[in-house]
Write a structure and sequence with these properties.
The protein is α+β, with helices and mostly antiparallel strands and 427 residues long. It contains 17 helices and eight strands. The strands form two sheets. A five-stranded antiparallel sheet has the order 6-3-5-4-7, sandwiched between helices. α4 packs antiparallel against α16, α5 runs antiparallel to α10 and α15 packs across α17. The longest helix is centred in the middle third of the chain and has 24 residues. The chain binds zinc ion.
């Protein structure tokens, strides 16, 4: 049977301590590229540049980060509508569409952080793994916190390492089983005495663990774990990277995981990268899932590239009808990801690094910075008219508000008028 443990490369690749190493080492070596695939590529190499390049060649100028963020925001509204259409009855159905209970108005605000307009006073689903709009907001929040943690760690002369755990996966496997096997193997490994001893010797003090899921036509779902380890300044490089692949293989055997080729697991089951460049790569992984600004997700409009698709890319393929299985795959992903903790901080880590208490995904998705300026307050009637215009109207309204709130208000008046006329005709 064909198996693949794509997404990780040789077990012991290391970059220089804190120094970043070579570009090839940072990406996990030349051989890794073949296993990584489009969805796994470091930020900007595959998904990012083509769209930016095309757009900039159209306009004859370099696309600005703000414009790129605007494009990504529009795409998230569009893909959320796609997700809603293939997940009827899911919590996503009311997300950023219906007013929050008790909210008298829907506000258009301008974010101090990004400079872009957004909606407040609407319901949010908080399902970061499923919803492009909540997902991007949660990813942005997490990225900020992880960056802070890395900055603190740098100040303490510590060193981070990114360890990716992956297991053989087959096209016939259901994601719900796959992901369970992966989490159970990892959790049992962390209780295993030789592993704990290695971590202790290496100076592991804290870690953040996250789940990433991609899908490929050849080998189906590929869930993998990224563990960002925070090691003390005297990192004992000898031991952990070298022995981890074997410990992982042993753990997979203990779990009864089907292993067609143990050498494959030893070579690619674990990917170990040391240094702040690895920390930066982890941040890009957190951001990538939902196409934050610099990703310019428009690249997805192209034909299916490579054989690894992120959830966001799957939605883009549903929209473009470029991958017949995409909708079913997305539905399975949505079902299997229910209740999973996509990001977990090790116990005591946040307090030790001076971070505030952890917020739930729902809180992050619903959060509004009270210092952000209110550009417009829409009455329920006005919002109904905007809503009737579909995702396109919701995007156009924030895009107008980005530049000129008066134009945004005039646009709302136009929508209300249009909505009245249409309602009259229906009546
Ligand atoms: Zn949502």
């Amino acid at each position: 049977m064909n198996s693949s443990i794509s997404g990780a490369n040789s077990g012991t690749t290391q970059t220089l301590m804190g120094g970043g190493g070579t570009e090839a080492a940072r990406r996990g070596g030349v051989s890794a590229a073949a296993f990584i695939g489009a969805a796994e590529a470091p930020l900007g190499t595959i998904t990012g540049f083509p769209a930016a390049f095309e757009l900039s060649s159209l306009t004859g100028s370099q696309i600005t980060p703000e414009e790129s963020a605007r494009i990504a925001r529009a795409e998230r509204f569009e893909l959320q509508a796609v997700a809603r259409s293939i997940l009827p009855g899911h919590r996503i159905r009311g997300c950023l569409l219906y007013r929050q209970h008790g909210a008298a108005t829907v506000q258009v605000r301008r974010s101090r952080a990004s400079g872009l307009a957004y909606y407040a006073g609407l319901q949010t689903c908080g399902r970061g793994a499923i919803c492009p709009l909540c997902g991007a907001k949660i990813a942005e929040h997490n990225r900020g916190e992880i960056q802070t943690a890395l900055d603190v760690w740098r100040g303490r002369a510590g060193v981070p390492a990114l360890i990716t755990f992956t297991l053989p996966h087959y096209r016939s496997q259901r994601l719900v089983h796959n992901v369970k096997a992966l989490l159970s193997a990892y959790s049992d490994l962390t209780r295993n005495r030789p592993y704990r001893r290695l971590c202790e010797v290496a100076g592991l003090q804290h870690y953040i663990r996250s789940i990433e899921v991609t899908w490929g036509r050849r080998n189906g779902f590929h869930p993998h774990l990224h563990v960002l380890g925070f090691f003390g300044s005297g990192f004992g490089a000898v031991g952990l990277p070298e022995r981890l692949p074997l410990l992982w293989l042993a753990e997979l055997y203990r779990q009864g995981v089907e292993i067609a080729n143990p050498d494959d697991v030893l070579e690619r089951g674990i990917r170990f990268q040391l240094g702040f460049s690895a920390g930066a790569e982890y941040l890009s992984k957190v951001s990538r899932a939902w196409g934050l600004a610099e990703e310019v997700a428009k690249a997805n409009r192209k034909k299916a590239r490579g054989d690894h698709f992120s959830p966001m890319q799957l939605l883009a393929h549903v929209r473009d009808a470029t991958l017949p299985e995409a909708a079913d795959v997305y539905r399975e992903y949505a079902e299997a990801s229910h209740g999973l903790h996509f990001l977990q901080w090790s116990r005591g880590m946040r307090a030790a690094l001076g971070l505030t208490e952890e917020k739930s995904d729902e809180e992050i998705a619903a959060g509004v910075d009270q210092h952000d300026v209110v550009l417009a307050s829409l009455t329920p009637e006005e919002w109904r008219a905007v809503r009737a215009g579909g995702w396109q109207a919701r995007v156009r309204l924030v895009e107008l508000a980005d530049f000129d709130e008066d134009a945004a208000i005039a646009y709302v008046a136009h929508l209300v008028e249009h909505f009245r006329q249409v309602s009259d005709v229906v009546r």
